[in-house]
Amino acid sequence: MHNTNVRVGRLITLYILFVIIGAVLLGRLFLLMSFPRAADAGDGRAVRVPRWQLDEEHFHLQLTSDARGWIEFQNGHRWQPRRLTEQRGGTSASPALVAPEIVGSIGLPDIWPSPDKVVAEQGRSGLEYAFDPILSGRRPGVTGHVVAAKVANQTAVRALPPTAFTLTPMRGKNVVTTIDESRQRLAETLLQKTGARHASIVSLSLRSDDIQVLASANHQASDALRAVAPGSIFKLVTAAAALETHTYSSNARFSCRGFVRLPHVDMHCWRVHGQLSLRQAIAESCDVTFATIGAQLGRIPMFVQAQRFGILETGIAPYDGKEVIVGADAGVVYKQSGSDLGLLANTAIGQEDVRMSPLQGAVLAAAIAKRGEHHRARLVKGFTDDSGRFTPLYPDARDTLGLRACSAFTASVLADGMWAAVHRREGTAYLLHPFPIAAKTGTAELPNGHVNAWLIGYQVHKGIPVSAFAICVADEPSWLAHKHLYQLAAAWFKSC
């Protein structure tokens, strides 16, 4: 009922506006026809032109501003959207834009006019679509231009005022995002240089939970928000479930002979690890250890732990109960029903039906860096109006739906394993040991023989975690995916 009243109110306002404009124009025309006036004949001579000779004079109304607000980067620079234009057989968009898949596009609606719109164009995708009601102007800017008829001797009447009517716009609000423009541009440049078709870099501030970088190699649909098989980075969830349910202790020992045989399961590890602690199993990414843990845990603990880490959501804090990026993928742990050991073992190592987006991977790493405290990441800070007044999207400057994903002790065990993965020679990310990071690698095998190569973790400055990250190269041959992954990671951390 409230929405109906608002729409009716807007229609009445528009109707009154056009009645007023029409009355002004008709009144002016009446005055022109009733009273004589002097006009310039074009050669410096003044001539008297009867008003009735100006009855062909009319007004051209021109839209000077659609009054739409804009989307801004963190630094206040305007973030340009795609502007869709009608073309025969489809649409075209402006090239060379920063993350157009995130900021979105503006174009003509499928159905128009709409009682909610004063101009035709509206947000069609991305942030432009999600925040269209806020960005849309309440009144467009309009100018009425006088177009004079010619007098009997065909000379133009130039004494009439060029502008007879001006309507000032009532602009929509601007949307202020958390994206760091310079780092976003750098990330997109690095992704472009690799030549990868599907790759992404995500960076989150641990102090504010802000998404600073959400970069994708694919500008049609964001690779950073697309859920794909995560491989061994899901072992962090499995390890947390093992500790949180007290199924295993932190000093439990495991034995890897290069394979594990369970009923209906014959799984081979990528190498023989021998005797391992849980921390070592994380650092060296032992498939046997986590397949054994998954079979012991059962279906529910891994699902619940993934839910607590926010993997079953998009990872972005919503606005007014709605998704900020429509179409962003939520994660998946199980597509299949049942609790057979093969399903559990493969799920525990991130292979079977598990799906995560790079953003969800960065949110997972952030929770570990913050001692088990989970918050959804922020993409929008708030809004500004014409006066420059800022209204925060979240009153307390944080996502109010935070929760504890795991205990601080569990998070410390995971963090120890991630640090060892980078800074011990046996670790799977030892190639990156010059950088002050803690990380977990992942390789997901795909049916087409390709892999998804992953790296998630957090950066440390003076002993304090400062930002979480996720880097993913998807659907490439194994050697190429890992080559691109480490090239991206090294170049990214060098720039930090």
TrEMBL record:
Keywords: Membrane, Transmembrane, Transmembrane helix. Gene3D superfamilies: DD-peptidase/beta-lactamase superfamily (3.40.710.10). Residues 224-477 form the Penicillin-binding protein transpeptidase domain. The chain crosses the membrane at residues 12-35. InterPro entries: Beta-lactam/transpept, Beta-lactam/transpept-like, PCN-bd_Tpept. This is Penicillin-binding transpeptidase domain-containing protein.
